[in-house]
Amino acid sequence: MASVYEIESRDEPYLGLDEKEAKVVHEQTKMIAVRSAVSAVCHPLMQVKVLMQLGHEPYPLTRGKVWYFFGREAYTLPNGFQYARNIFNERGFTGLYTGVGAALCGNLAGAIGSIATTVYIDRHHKNLGGTQEHTNKEERQLTDSESFRRFVRFAIRESVAKTVGTIVARPFQVIMIRKIAQVIGNEVKYTSVFSSFLLIEKEEGFYGFFAGLVPQLVGELVTIWALHGAAFLLERALVTIEGEVEEGTEDTEEAGKSAVSLARKSMKIMLPFLVNNFVYPYSVVSTIMAVSGSGLAVSMLPYAPTFGTWQDCWSYLKADKHMKRGAKIFFRTHDGPITVGRDNKIYSAAKKYYP
User: Fold this and answer.
1) What is the distance between the alpha carbons of residues 178 and 110, in angstroms, rounded to a whole number?
2) Which residues pair with 61 in a beta bridge?
3) Cβ–Cβ < 8 Å for 349, 339
4) Is residue 349 very low, low, confident or very high in pLDDT (cuts 50, 70, 90)?
5) Per the omega criterion (within 30 degrees of 0), is the bond before 302 cis?
């Protein structure tokens, strides 16, 4: 395949894309390849997260400090890697990669959907979200009003692209979650990606492919707007500080610029972490609703109630304080009731999970 850099010497468009669009697609394609590789390698932890979000905690508890060597005494659940090791011991290496095919298909479909949407709106809806003015200027060159309009434009355009990508990828994500979830009840209902598509269409129709879509979309959109909004406010504050610093002495100016630079770097690291922690409950609800209507054991009593809407699921989890299921890999404490299994080990008191 010809490199996009060869396109510069051509007069005709490459795959219907102009030079700028082709370069964007080329860069995005490389990112997709990297993300797919990382997703494949890290899939065992993704599987662990899904099982935790579904409330599947079948392994013995241990007694220890909340922070290993510090904090109060508490019963602790296996960390993410111990959980994965238990899966390996039970089902072997292939068991760690349950649903990986659907996961990779979903990542690819979602990325292509987002990229195609971005190219489309850049070509046909250049002013979606606002005019293109000021898009290439540095933050300090803008007034508060200009910066706000740019923030709104970027957030709207990213929201549209992300929405399309999420919708396109959702059927594959539903299949991945169900393939993982059926392990809880030792079922073999969903096998290949293709046969799972046929089964869902037969049993649930078109809407079955989008079970749990709404809470996922809400979480994605809240993330986009919260990140852009917080970045806008903090950047404007830093611009103001920079202006004040430049009016000082040479020594204070240098120290001030270093502090502002450090603040920007810290912001880029901390903001995604804080926002993702805030919207995480939507991920839990989306995962649980993905098995709704599947007929799998985990979607029915005594494993879980049958939820009519995702808001019902939200209310149920909130009442039981389970909104952060699977949010942590380490330092996982169990504060609920416990029981003794037939092997004389301590387990979570959810009767359907302990031996």
Assistant:
1) 19
2) none
3) yes
4) confident
5) yes
Q: How confident is the model at residue 47 (pLDDT cuts 50, 70, 90)?
A: very high
Query: Looking at residues 282-296, what average pLDDT do you find?
Result: 95
Q: pLDDT tens digit string along 60-96?
A: 998 887 777 777 888 899 999 999 999 999 999 999 9
Q: Which residues contact 120 (CB under 8 A, 6 or more apart)?
A: none
Q: What's the rounded Cα separation, in Å, for the pair 339 and 248?
A: 66
- Other C-beta atoms within 10 Å of 111: how many? 20
Answer yes or no: are the C-beta atoms of 329 and 84 closer than 8 Å.
Answer: no
Among the listed residues 265, 259, 304, 266, the one whose alpha carbon sits nearest the alpha carbon of residue 285: 304
Mean pLDDT for 109-113 is 95
> pLDDT grade, residue 268 (50/70/90)?
confident
Q: The tokens of 204 are what?
A: 């649930």
| Residues facing 248 on adjacent strands | none
Is 299 exposed, middle or buried (CB count within 10 Å of its CB: 0-12, 13-18, 19+)?
Answer: buried
Question: pLDDT grade, residue 16 (50/70/90)?
Answer: low
Residue ranges covered by each domain of the chain:
19-348
- Report the C-alpha gap between 115 and 330 in whole angstroms: 35
Looking up tokens 């269409």 gives 201
Helix count and strand count (H, E) for the chain: 9, 5
DSSP strand pairing (338-340 vs 333-334): unpaired
Task: Read off the tokens for 281.
Answer: 């409950």
- The model's pLDDT over 194-220, given as tens digits with 9 standing for 90+, comes to 999 999 999 999 999 999 999 999 999
Lowest mean pLDDT segment, chosen from 19-28, 156-165, 339-348: 19-28
CATH value of 19-348 in 3.40.50.2000, 1.50.40.10, 3.40.50.300, 1.10.10.10 = 1.50.40.10
The pairs formed by 14-18 with CB atoms below 8 angstroms and a separation of 24 or more are 17/119
CA-based max dimension of the chain: 76
Of 91, 57, 291, the C-alpha closest to 182 is 291
CA-CA distance, 327 to 52, in Å (whole number)? 9
